Amino acid sequence: MSVPLSISGTTGPGEEPIACTLDAAGVATQGERWVQILADAAVERVETEDGLWLHFRAKSGVEQELRELVAVETECCSWASWTVDAEADQLVLRIRSRGDGVAVLHTMFSRASAASAGDCRGCL
Which CATH entry fits the domain spanning 5-116: 1.25.40, 3.10.28, 3.90.1200, 3.90.1720? Predict the structure, then answer.
């Protein structure tokens, strides 16, 4: 059974809560996959007004892995929108939200969040 991992806040009045529906094993697996792709291919992290953009080298296997990660995130963290776009020689992951969701996105995939989890391999 999956118990949502709740993160304080909502995306706005009357909106869905900021929570992840993966169980502990799913969170661990997804986290390991993110650490790996960030270490292998990430080149830039940009905080935006409505979320976060992550830029990746478009090398072999990266687009497929990124799209598979995003498919999981779209299901388990539907409080944000997750899109992957190919641009020239890079892939850009755009993650957007509203309300408290923006602040949560700004803490994701950063040195601080990785360091607090005890692992800073590949963080930007």
Answer: 3.10.28
